[in-house]
Structure formats: C-alpha cells, structure tokens
Amino acid sequence: MNESSSEVGIHVSGGTAVLAGDPDLISTLLSRLDVDASQVRKAGRGTTDLVANATGLGAILSALDGSWVQLTPESHLRLMELAKFNLSQDGVFTGVLRGAKGQIVSFAQFRTGGMNPLVMTNLATLTATMALRNAVAQLEELAQAMDVKLDRLLDDNRARALGDVQGLTQVLLRAFELYEETGKITDTAWSQVAGHATALAQASSHALAQIENLTGSMNARSVADKAGAAETIADRELRSWLVILAACQANQQRLETLELVHLRQRDPGAVQAHAASIEGSAARREQAAVSRLQSLLDALTSAANVSDFNRVRSPQKSRSLLNSAESASRLIGTFAEIYGLDGLLQGELERETWRKSLSDFAKTTTSAVSSVAKAVPVGIAKAGGDVVIRAAAQIEGKRSPGNELPELISEKPGETP
C-alpha cells in the first residue's frame, strides 16, 4: 500500500472541513469527531485535488476520496484536541492526519510561513471554494427558515425585475459542477460565465434597494399607514427579498470562485492577490447588507413604539403595527444568525396594555390641559378616557369634526396592543 494511502489531508475554514485521502482513515476521523452522517457530503474532483495539492498528497490523486464535513462546535473542539494545536485567529488551518491499521497516529499542522507559492495558490482557491459552499449552504438554510421555495422565488415577478437570476444561477451552477467533476474549467464553460459580473452586481444592488424601499415605507405619518406598511413588510415582502439578496450574493461568489479557479489554470502567480480582492468584495457586500437591514430595524422599532395617545386612540392599528414590527425583526434576526452578522443591533419594542397607556396618557395630559384650560384640571383628573382623549385631541389639533371621538375609540380596549 502506498504510504500516503494512510494519510488524510484536511483544510478547515470556519465551521466547514474538507478532507482528502484514504477513505478508511477518513471514516475513522469522522467517527472520532462524532460527526453525523447527514453532515458529510462527497467532495468533487476539483476540491479533492486542491486539498491533495495543498497538503502534499497530490502524487496519488486517483486513490483519494474527498468529503465535505459540516462541523458542530463539539466536533470542532474534538478536532482541536485531536490535532493538539490551537486554531488560528482567522479560523483557517491546514494539516495532514496520519494513520496505521485503522488508528490515528499523528496530526501535523501546516504553517503558512513555510509554504511555497504553489501551495499558497491552492489554499487560496480552496478557501474561496469553501466560502462559496458555506454561502450556498446558508442560502438553503435561509430559504428553509423563511419557508420559501427558492426555485419558485427566483422565477417570480420580484426576481424578474433583477434580470434572469434563475438563468444565471443555472449557468453558474453547471459550470461549477463541471469543475468539481473534472478538476478544471474548460474554455467552453468559462465562455458561458465570463462577462456576467456586472449583471450579478446590479442584481444584488437592486435587491438591496428593495430593502431600502421597505425602510422608506415606514415613514408614513399615520399609525394606520405605518401598520399597513409593516404588515406588508412582515407578511409579504421582507422574507422574499432577504432570500433573493442571499441568492444574488451567492451567485457573485460562484462567479468569483470560478474566476479564481480559471486564473489558477492560466496565471497561478496572480491567484493570491485576486483571492484577497474577492475577500474584500465579500466584506463590502456583507457591510452593505448590514447597513440596509440596520436601517430597516431602526425604522420598525421607531414606528412600533407609538405614543400613549396613538395607542389609546387606535388600539387595533397599534397592536397590528407592533406585531408586524416584531415579526419583521425576527426575520432579520434569522438572516443575521444564519449569516453571522454580529453588527446588527435589535431595538427594544415596547408592549403595553391599552389601560396602562390610558392611565399614563391621563397623567401626562393633565398638566398640558391645565395650562390652556384652567377651568377643567380637576375634571380631567377624574374623567374617564373619553374626556381625556377629547382634551388631548383639541390640544394636538386632532379633534374630529362635530365633537366626535377619534376613529376606533369604540374598539374594546382591554387587549394588549
């Protein structure tokens, strides 16, 4: 048996590991890490070659098996204990596991300082490939969490406004599958994907603009209009645009990874600089998403924290606004959790009963009324909700024609808005 058949190359980035080497030793390692079989996927030739070349196993590529593994925090910790070294600050490491007679014998970590340029090129391409796989996995998880059928969504009227997202996705997916099967990108496959960078960037920008439009809709003046806008965001628009945005950005990563693989075939020396540029682009896309979503969160929080006067006057609309704002905030929270957006700040939404709002409003209104209607301060303090609301409406210029009470005051007020 070839000596390297009892070795396994491993590359870890974040919560994902990719392995290449002796299949029995891979099975032994996964068993030691207590990895669920559902978290293991077969790696294609392209990824297996990258791992083998980066870890020095490239001489026997035909004898290697490859596996993608999604690590849990527990399995990640077991790997660290097994390897007997600490994970680097960027969450990436590469090494070789050696075994004999079905047992793990040793684990060697590679240090980037001692790697030759060709190995660094392979690692840069491999890291980009793993980032893409993570993005696709996150997209699938997001679609499931949002209860959205991705293929249908990418073919509906929203996505059509971005261009042929579905078509571009299929072209990019097929090109990457061919690369995984063969280990290279043919001129034919490259000609099909080259030149789509602008269209993909425009699609992502359009998706971000739609989220920005949702934020703008919360600037409506009345509680009723804000409630309607928040309901539209929470029930009909936000989940779709979050998934579309993720799909557009995943497509950008697909193209960038294919660019890197193509460059590795043509000009290996330029790969590391190009990989650094790709990482910068990904960081900018993340920041753009965080910025738009933070603005939407702030707008939802601000609109939902209605005044006591509006909660007393329009209990049903206030309750609807609060419920929708909470629902939309949870959707954004789900997106942030899946994509690891730690910079988002969730605002605090106030939930208060109608009677508590009425009591607070009566207290704060008494002093205001007494300054302009000195004949009624005692009456205000003792009056029921109707008198308080009429007085407040008069002060704020909101008294209805004919001394009628403001709209919706006849609703049952006992429920929590």
Q: How much strand?
A: 5-15%
Helix content: 55-70%
- Can you give the mean pLDDT? 77
Helix/strand-derived category reads alpha+beta
For the largest sheet, list the strands in their spatial order. 3-4-2-1-5-6
Radius of gyration: 29 Å
Order of helices and strands: EEHEHEHEEHHHHHHHHHHHHH
Descriptive notes:
The chain has 417 residues and is α+β, with helices and mostly antiparallel strands. 62% of the residues lie in helices and 9% in strands. A hairpin with a 2-residue loop joins strand 5 (92-100) and strand 6. Helix 4 (117-145) runs antiparallel to helix 10 (223-266), helix 9 (197-217) packs antiparallel against helix 10 (223-266) and helix 11 (271-304) runs antiparallel to helix 13 (315-339). The longest helix is centred in the middle third of the chain and has 44 residues, at 223-266. Mean pLDDT is 77; it is low at 1-5, 353-361, 372-377 and 394-417.
Structure at a glance:
The chain has helices at about 25-35, 45-55, 75-85, 115-145, 150-155, 155-160, 165-180, 185-195, 195-215, 225-265, 270-305, 310-315, 315-340, 355-370, 375-380, 385-395; strands spanning about 5-15, 15-20, 40, 65-70, 90-100, 105-110.
Layout of strands and helices, then pairs:
Elements: E1 7-13, E2 16-21, H1 23-33, E3 40-42, H2 45-55, E4 65-70, H3 73-83, E5 92-100, E6 103-109, H4 117-145, H5 150-153, H6 157-160, H7 165-182, H8 187-193, H9 197-217, H10 223-266, H11 271-304, H12 308-313, H13 315-339, H14 354-370, H15 377-382, H16 385-395
Antiparallel strand pairs: 1-2, 1-5, 2-4, 3-4, 5-6
Helix pairs in contact: 2-4, 4-10, 4-11, 4-13, 7-8, 7-10, 9-10, 9-11, 10-11, 10-13, 11-13, 14-16
